[in-house]
Automatic annotation (TrEMBL):
Species for this entry: Candidatus Woesebacteria bacterium GW2011_GWB1_43_14
UniProt signal peptide: none
Source species taxonomy: Bacteria, Candidatus Woeseibacteriota
The protein, known as: Efflux transporter, RND family, MFP subunit
A Gene Ontology term for the protein's cellular component: efflux pump complex
Gene3D superfamilies: 2.40.30.170, 2.40.50.100
PANTHER family: MULTIDRUG RESISTANCE PROTEIN MDTA (PTHR30469), SLR1207 PROTEIN (PTHR30469:SF33)
Length: 340
Protein backbone atom coordinates (compact mmCIF):
# COMPACT_ATOMS: atom_id res chain seq x y z
CA UNK A 1 0.00 0.00 0.00
CA UNK A 2 2.79 2.40 0.89
CA UNK A 3 4.48 1.69 -2.41
CA UNK A 4 1.31 2.56 -4.28
CA UNK A 5 1.06 5.93 -2.44
CA UNK A 6 4.67 6.80 -3.20
CA UNK A 7 4.16 5.96 -6.86
CA UNK A 8 1.04 8.15 -7.00
CA UNK A 9 2.87 11.12 -5.43
CA UNK A 10 5.72 10.80 -7.90
CA UNK A 11 3.33 10.77 -10.84
CA UNK A 12 1.33 13.72 -9.45
CA UNK A 13 4.39 15.87 -8.71
CA UNK A 14 5.89 15.07 -12.09
CA UNK A 15 2.63 16.13 -13.76
CA UNK A 16 2.66 19.49 -11.88
CA UNK A 17 6.23 20.14 -12.94
CA UNK A 18 5.41 19.27 -16.51
CA UNK A 19 2.39 21.62 -16.50
CA UNK A 20 4.45 24.49 -15.05
CA UNK A 21 7.19 23.98 -17.61
CA UNK A 22 4.59 23.87 -20.38
CA UNK A 23 3.08 27.20 -19.21
CA UNK A 24 6.51 28.88 -19.19
CA UNK A 25 7.31 27.63 -22.69
CA UNK A 26 3.98 28.84 -24.01
CA UNK A 27 4.53 32.30 -22.47
CA UNK A 28 7.99 32.65 -24.04
CA UNK A 29 6.73 31.43 -27.39
CA UNK A 30 3.83 33.86 -27.23
CA UNK A 31 6.10 36.83 -26.47
CA UNK A 32 8.51 35.95 -29.28
CA UNK A 33 5.62 35.42 -31.65
CA UNK A 34 4.10 38.78 -30.71
CA UNK A 35 7.42 40.57 -31.31
CA UNK A 36 7.78 38.97 -34.73
CA UNK A 37 4.16 39.69 -35.58
CA UNK A 38 4.47 43.31 -34.45
CA UNK A 39 7.60 43.91 -36.50
CA UNK A 40 6.16 42.13 -39.49
CA UNK A 41 2.92 44.11 -39.44
CA UNK A 42 4.45 47.56 -38.85
CA UNK A 43 3.92 47.83 -35.10
CA UNK A 44 6.60 49.47 -32.91
CA UNK A 45 8.75 50.54 -35.80
CA UNK A 46 9.33 53.68 -37.84
CA UNK A 47 11.59 55.02 -40.55
CA UNK A 48 14.21 57.71 -40.25
CA UNK A 49 12.79 60.75 -42.01
CA UNK A 50 14.12 64.05 -43.31
CA UNK A 51 12.41 67.34 -42.79
CA UNK A 52 11.70 70.02 -40.19
CA UNK A 53 12.04 69.62 -36.42
CA UNK A 54 10.57 72.25 -34.12
CA UNK A 55 11.20 72.65 -30.39
CA UNK A 56 8.21 74.22 -28.70
CA UNK A 57 7.51 75.50 -25.21
CA UNK A 58 3.93 75.50 -23.95
CA UNK A 59 3.03 77.79 -21.03
CA UNK A 60 -0.34 78.23 -19.39
CA UNK A 61 -1.77 81.70 -18.87
CA UNK A 62 -4.91 83.81 -18.95
CA UNK A 63 -6.57 86.74 -20.65
CA UNK A 64 -5.81 90.12 -19.07
CA UNK A 65 -6.09 93.78 -20.11
CA UNK A 66 -3.92 96.88 -19.89
CA UNK A 67 -6.91 99.17 -19.37
CA UNK A 68 -9.12 97.67 -16.71
CA UNK A 69 -10.33 99.64 -13.69
CA UNK A 70 -12.33 98.91 -10.54
CA UNK A 71 -13.76 102.20 -9.29
CA UNK A 72 -15.22 103.19 -5.92
CA UNK A 73 -16.19 106.40 -4.14
CA UNK A 74 -13.66 108.00 -1.82
CA UNK A 75 -16.32 108.51 0.83
CA UNK A 76 -19.53 106.79 1.87
CA UNK A 77 -22.86 108.33 0.96
CA UNK A 78 -26.25 108.01 -0.70
CA UNK A 79 -26.27 107.38 -4.43
CA UNK A 80 -28.32 109.99 -6.30
CA UNK A 81 -27.31 109.24 -9.88
CA UNK A 82 -26.31 106.14 -11.88
CA UNK A 83 -25.46 107.03 -15.47
CA UNK A 84 -24.54 103.66 -16.95
CA UNK A 85 -25.52 100.01 -16.98
CA UNK A 86 -23.57 96.80 -17.54
CA UNK A 87 -22.50 96.30 -21.14
CA UNK A 88 -22.74 99.97 -22.04
CA UNK A 89 -19.91 101.62 -23.99
CA UNK A 90 -18.56 104.75 -22.28
CA UNK A 91 -16.25 107.55 -23.32
CA UNK A 92 -13.28 108.77 -21.32
CA UNK A 93 -14.45 111.25 -18.68
CA UNK A 94 -18.10 110.20 -18.84
CA UNK A 95 -19.95 110.29 -15.49
CA UNK A 96 -20.68 106.81 -14.15
CA UNK A 97 -22.35 107.67 -10.85
CA UNK A 98 -22.71 110.33 -8.20
CA UNK A 99 -23.33 110.61 -4.44
CA UNK A 100 -25.45 113.19 -2.64
CA UNK A 101 -23.09 116.17 -2.13
CA UNK A 102 -25.21 118.27 0.23
CA UNK A 103 -23.12 117.55 3.33
CA UNK A 104 -19.87 117.36 1.38
CA UNK A 105 -20.43 120.74 -0.22
CA UNK A 106 -21.37 122.27 3.14
CA UNK A 107 -18.13 120.93 4.62
CA UNK A 108 -16.18 122.38 1.72
CA UNK A 109 -17.79 125.81 2.06
CA UNK A 110 -17.17 125.79 5.81
CA UNK A 111 -13.51 124.95 5.21
CA UNK A 112 -13.23 127.88 2.77
CA UNK A 113 -14.76 130.20 5.35
CA UNK A 114 -12.30 129.04 8.02
CA UNK A 115 -9.44 129.62 5.62
CA UNK A 116 -10.55 133.18 4.93
CA UNK A 117 -10.89 133.79 8.68
CA UNK A 118 -7.41 132.49 9.56
CA UNK A 119 -5.87 134.23 6.58
CA UNK A 120 -7.22 137.57 7.85
CA UNK A 121 -5.84 136.80 11.32
CA UNK A 122 -2.40 136.11 9.89
CA UNK A 123 -2.42 139.36 7.93
CA UNK A 124 -3.40 141.27 11.09
CA UNK A 125 -0.64 139.68 13.15
CA UNK A 126 1.92 140.31 10.42
CA UNK A 127 0.96 144.01 10.41
CA UNK A 128 1.54 144.12 14.17
CA UNK A 129 5.02 142.58 14.05
CA UNK A 130 6.25 143.86 10.69
CA UNK A 131 8.55 146.41 12.30
CA UNK A 132 9.93 143.93 14.83
CA UNK A 133 11.79 141.46 12.62
CA UNK A 134 15.01 142.06 14.56
CA UNK A 135 13.55 142.44 18.07
CA UNK A 136 10.45 140.22 17.98
CA UNK A 137 9.50 139.11 21.48
CA UNK A 138 8.61 135.55 22.39
CA UNK A 139 5.00 136.61 22.92
CA UNK A 140 4.88 138.16 19.45
CA UNK A 141 6.53 135.09 17.90
CA UNK A 142 4.06 132.78 19.66
CA UNK A 143 1.09 134.83 18.46
CA UNK A 144 2.37 134.96 14.87
CA UNK A 145 3.22 131.25 14.76
CA UNK A 146 -0.19 130.25 16.17
CA UNK A 147 -1.95 132.29 13.52
CA UNK A 148 0.16 130.83 10.72
CA UNK A 149 -0.38 127.24 11.94
CA UNK A 150 -4.16 127.76 12.09
CA UNK A 151 -4.10 129.06 8.52
CA UNK A 152 -2.08 126.04 7.37
CA UNK A 153 -4.57 123.67 9.03
CA UNK A 154 -7.46 125.52 7.42
CA UNK A 155 -5.80 125.14 4.02
CA UNK A 156 -5.36 121.39 4.52
CA UNK A 157 -9.03 121.14 5.54
CA UNK A 158 -10.02 122.86 2.30
CA UNK A 159 -7.94 120.38 0.27
CA UNK A 160 -9.53 117.38 2.05
CA UNK A 161 -13.06 118.73 1.71
CA UNK A 162 -12.54 119.54 -1.96
CA UNK A 163 -11.20 116.05 -2.64
CA UNK A 164 -14.16 114.43 -0.88
CA UNK A 165 -16.52 116.60 -2.90
CA UNK A 166 -14.85 115.66 -6.19
CA UNK A 167 -14.63 112.00 -5.13
CA UNK A 168 -18.42 111.86 -4.86
CA UNK A 169 -18.57 111.65 -8.65
CA UNK A 170 -17.02 108.75 -10.57
CA UNK A 171 -15.81 109.17 -14.15
CA UNK A 172 -14.73 106.65 -16.78
CA UNK A 173 -10.90 106.72 -16.83
CA UNK A 174 -10.79 105.59 -20.46
CA UNK A 175 -13.05 104.56 -23.31
CA UNK A 176 -14.39 101.06 -22.84
CA UNK A 177 -17.25 98.85 -21.70
CA UNK A 178 -18.89 98.83 -18.27
CA UNK A 179 -18.62 95.26 -17.03
CA UNK A 180 -20.02 95.70 -13.51
CA UNK A 181 -22.39 98.05 -11.66
CA UNK A 182 -22.80 97.44 -7.93
CA UNK A 183 -25.93 99.59 -7.49
CA UNK A 184 -27.86 100.03 -10.75
CA UNK A 185 -30.48 102.19 -8.99
CA UNK A 186 -30.10 105.40 -6.94
CA UNK A 187 -31.16 106.07 -3.33
CA UNK A 188 -28.97 103.32 -1.88
CA UNK A 189 -25.96 103.80 0.38
CA UNK A 190 -22.53 103.15 -1.10
CA UNK A 191 -19.55 102.49 1.16
CA UNK A 192 -16.16 104.00 0.39
CA UNK A 193 -14.37 100.62 0.44
CA UNK A 194 -16.70 98.92 -2.08
CA UNK A 195 -16.18 98.63 -5.83
CA UNK A 196 -19.07 100.38 -7.59
CA UNK A 197 -18.09 100.11 -11.28
CA UNK A 198 -15.74 98.09 -13.44
CA UNK A 199 -14.64 99.37 -16.83
CA UNK A 200 -12.67 97.45 -19.46
CA UNK A 201 -11.19 98.55 -22.76
CA UNK A 202 -11.44 95.37 -24.90
CA UNK A 203 -8.91 96.79 -27.38
CA UNK A 204 -6.21 96.38 -24.73
CA UNK A 205 -6.84 92.67 -24.06
CA UNK A 206 -3.72 90.49 -24.08
CA UNK A 207 -2.61 87.02 -22.98
CA UNK A 208 -0.36 86.86 -19.92
CA UNK A 209 1.94 83.96 -19.04
CA UNK A 210 4.79 83.44 -16.61
CA UNK A 211 8.19 82.06 -17.68
CA UNK A 212 10.94 80.92 -15.34
CA UNK A 213 14.51 82.20 -15.47
CA UNK A 214 15.67 79.45 -17.84
CA UNK A 215 12.83 80.04 -20.29
CA UNK A 216 12.67 83.84 -20.43
CA UNK A 217 16.26 84.12 -21.69
CA UNK A 218 15.28 82.19 -24.84
CA UNK A 219 12.39 84.50 -25.68
CA UNK A 220 12.47 87.78 -27.57
CA UNK A 221 10.27 90.77 -28.27
CA UNK A 222 8.05 90.37 -31.38
CA UNK A 223 8.36 86.57 -31.20
CA UNK A 224 5.31 84.84 -32.69
CA UNK A 225 3.07 82.89 -30.30
CA UNK A 226 0.11 80.58 -30.95
CA UNK A 227 -2.56 80.60 -28.23
CA UNK A 228 -5.39 78.15 -27.60
CA UNK A 229 -8.03 79.14 -25.06
CA UNK A 230 -9.81 76.48 -23.05
CA UNK A 231 -13.11 78.14 -24.00
CA UNK A 232 -12.27 77.88 -27.73
CA UNK A 233 -10.23 74.64 -27.99
CA UNK A 234 -10.37 74.37 -31.80
CA UNK A 235 -9.41 77.99 -32.48
CA UNK A 236 -5.77 79.05 -32.75
CA UNK A 237 -5.05 82.69 -31.88
CA UNK A 238 -1.84 84.24 -33.13
CA UNK A 239 0.02 86.84 -31.12
CA UNK A 240 3.42 88.42 -30.51
CA UNK A 241 5.47 89.11 -27.40
CA UNK A 242 5.34 92.83 -26.64
CA UNK A 243 6.76 92.91 -23.10
CA UNK A 244 8.96 90.80 -20.84
CA UNK A 245 9.21 91.90 -17.23
CA UNK A 246 12.65 92.65 -15.84
CA UNK A 247 11.62 92.04 -12.23
CA UNK A 248 10.23 88.67 -11.10
CA UNK A 249 6.61 88.29 -10.07
CA UNK A 250 6.59 88.29 -6.26
CA UNK A 251 3.14 86.68 -6.15
CA UNK A 252 4.36 83.51 -7.89
CA UNK A 253 6.33 80.61 -6.41
CA UNK A 254 9.95 80.60 -7.57
CA UNK A 255 11.62 83.08 -9.91
CA UNK A 256 9.23 83.72 -12.78
CA UNK A 257 8.72 86.70 -15.08
CA UNK A 258 5.56 88.03 -16.65
CA UNK A 259 5.27 87.79 -20.44
CA UNK A 260 2.72 89.94 -22.30
CA UNK A 261 1.45 88.55 -25.61
CA UNK A 262 -0.55 90.96 -27.80
CA UNK A 263 -3.30 89.29 -29.85
CA UNK A 264 -3.38 89.88 -33.60
CA UNK A 265 -7.19 89.88 -33.57
CA UNK A 266 -9.52 90.40 -30.64
CA UNK A 267 -12.84 88.60 -30.42
CA UNK A 268 -15.61 90.30 -28.46
CA UNK A 269 -16.27 86.90 -26.83
CA UNK A 270 -12.90 86.89 -25.08
CA UNK A 271 -13.27 87.53 -21.35
CA UNK A 272 -10.87 88.48 -18.59
CA UNK A 273 -9.57 85.45 -16.74
CA UNK A 274 -10.12 82.97 -19.57
CA UNK A 275 -7.35 80.40 -19.36
CA UNK A 276 -5.39 78.65 -22.07
CA UNK A 277 -2.00 77.62 -23.40
CA UNK A 278 0.56 79.64 -25.33
CA UNK A 279 2.93 77.81 -27.67
CA UNK A 280 6.36 79.39 -28.21
CA UNK A 281 8.76 78.17 -30.92
CA UNK A 282 12.13 77.99 -29.16
CA UNK A 283 14.23 76.44 -31.95
CA UNK A 284 13.80 75.10 -35.45
CA UNK A 285 15.86 73.01 -37.90
CA UNK A 286 15.03 72.21 -41.51
CA UNK A 287 16.12 69.39 -43.83
CA UNK A 288 17.51 67.27 -40.98
CA UNK A 289 17.19 63.59 -40.11
CA UNK A 290 14.61 62.80 -37.46
CA UNK A 291 12.72 59.98 -35.81
CA UNK A 292 9.58 59.98 -33.67
CA UNK A 293 10.49 60.95 -30.11
CA UNK A 294 9.34 57.65 -28.61
CA UNK A 295 12.00 55.72 -30.57
CA UNK A 296 14.97 57.52 -28.98
CA UNK A 297 16.28 55.39 -26.11
CA UNK A 298 19.04 56.12 -23.61
CA UNK A 299 21.39 54.34 -21.24
CA UNK A 300 24.63 55.16 -19.44
CA UNK A 301 26.54 55.48 -22.69
CA UNK A 302 24.11 57.92 -24.27
CA UNK A 303 21.14 58.00 -26.59
CA UNK A 304 20.60 55.27 -29.15
CA UNK A 305 18.21 53.79 -31.70
CA UNK A 306 17.24 50.12 -31.98
CA UNK A 307 17.91 48.85 -35.50
CA UNK A 308 18.41 45.55 -37.32
CA UNK A 309 15.08 44.19 -36.17
CA UNK A 310 15.52 45.70 -32.72
CA UNK A 311 18.65 43.68 -31.93
CA UNK A 312 21.29 46.38 -32.49
CA UNK A 313 21.93 49.60 -30.63
CA UNK A 314 23.13 52.50 -32.77
CA UNK A 315 24.25 55.43 -30.65
CA UNK A 316 23.33 58.86 -32.00
CA UNK A 317 23.50 62.50 -31.03
CA UNK A 318 20.17 64.20 -30.45
CA UNK A 319 19.80 67.71 -31.79
CA UNK A 320 16.58 69.69 -31.51
CA UNK A 321 13.99 67.78 -29.52
CA UNK A 322 10.40 68.52 -30.42
CA UNK A 323 7.23 67.12 -28.93
CA UNK A 324 6.81 64.54 -31.71
CA UNK A 325 10.15 64.58 -33.59
CA UNK A 326 13.78 64.46 -32.49
CA UNK A 327 16.67 65.49 -34.71
CA UNK A 328 19.34 62.78 -34.87
CA UNK A 329 22.96 62.84 -35.95
CA UNK A 330 25.14 59.76 -36.40
CA UNK A 331 25.53 56.62 -38.46
CA UNK A 332 21.96 56.51 -39.71
CA UNK A 333 20.43 57.27 -43.07
CA UNK A 334 17.08 58.41 -44.31
CA UNK A 335 14.75 55.45 -44.62
CA UNK A 336 16.48 53.28 -42.00
CA UNK A 337 14.00 51.36 -39.87
CA UNK A 338 14.11 51.84 -36.10
CA UNK A 339 12.27 49.92 -33.42
CA UNK A 340 10.82 50.72 -30.06
Amino acid sequence: MRKLLMLFRRLFLSSKKRILLLVILLAVAGFVGYRRYAKKNGFEKASVGRGEVVEELVLSGEISASQYAELGYETSGRVVYVGVEEGKVVKKGQILGKLDTTVLNATYQSALADLRKYDATVQNIHDQVKDHSSDETYIQKDTRTTAEVNKDKAWEAVIAAERNLKGATLYAPFEGIVTYVANPFPLVTALYNQTQFKVLNPETIFFKVSADQTEVTRMRINQTVVITLDSFPVQEIRGTITRMDYAPDTEEVGVVYGIKVALESINIEYRLGMTGDAKFVMDRAENVLYVPAVFVQSDREGKYLLMNGGDKKVYVEAGIEGEERVEIKGEVNEGDVVYD
